[in-house]
């Protein structure tokens, strides 16, 4: 009870029989009051049963945290009030949201997916859009719920700020090379994010099966897909903060503002546990569309896919005001892509380039790198066209640029084409390889001078 409550002192002239009425008038609840004796002293005992609905004190809501009393405000208060009413954030109606705010192509896309999964009745899929939303429990009388705009909205961020995904490629924790934002409905976000990761962010190592060349991603795509789906379904969208995916040469880190269920620990999350979706309506829609096989098995699936890929199990961390999930590359696979010493240094010292990397790059690459190539690496801040690179280097002629800068960097495996199958495409751009990124970090640390 708040310290400034008229009931917080026993020196008050308030009579025992008056206390229940006073509590009822101030807090709106009923209590039992008893006079008890303990160690020769008379004490007033006030017994309060747990209430299913929230109780306010003069319009404020308080909770006990250790030995202190905290006031609930903002998003935390909203979650608390919804939980006490047996509701979830995604099930709250939005007054101004109408069927006209939904994208017909997104609804049709869901129909196609649900028809293949067999998890929605065929008659429902053949019915109107309004009937489909009703069957998915996305309407409340004449109003549509929050989950509707996230799943099918033309512009979800009009109603839910921060409902998008950020991607970034990092050399070290403080060196962001390039980034993307993925917007739209949640189904589109998942598909676009996976496509962008494959095409722009993830590198593959080369192996051979007889004479056949095989390219394998450093990270297991099925596990990344499952992690992304979990982030989208379990995110706390009231935070206004986007899901963030940080890609490094040796690891991928996903973070979102999702919270563990009340009284759950990370140990319980890692073990066998029941389904407890933070946003049940979102989870149900993804299940019916066939994106997830069942609820409560996401972590098990991620671990299994990592094991099948000979990669370390994902690392979970709940200490960053949300859930952080880290995938690390298989050491052998990373060594095949970068070299043994570089791989070892990256895996042992995340985010830092050690003397081992310097020695690896200096011995293996630096002898082949002229000052012009080093300048090119420093100028290549993102995927850039030949013209953009030339202008960044303040060069006028293309011949010298091609002969002294571009071709040597390509031959050394420090940069690569974004459209390798069409070398002369007008849309062709160039980006650093993992090897080039490692050398760039060495250059920036001053180990090799251009």
UniProtKB/TrEMBL annotation:
Q: Could you tell me which Gene3D superfamilies the record lists for this protein?
A: 3.30.565.60
Which is a Pfam family this sequence falls into? Fic-like_C
**Boundaries of each Filamentation induced by cAMP protein Fic-like C-terminal domain copy?**
372-433
Top-level taxon in the UniProt lineage: Bacteria
- What is the official name of this protein in its record? Putative transcriptional regulator
Q: Which organism is it from?
A: Candidatus Accumulibacter aalborgensis
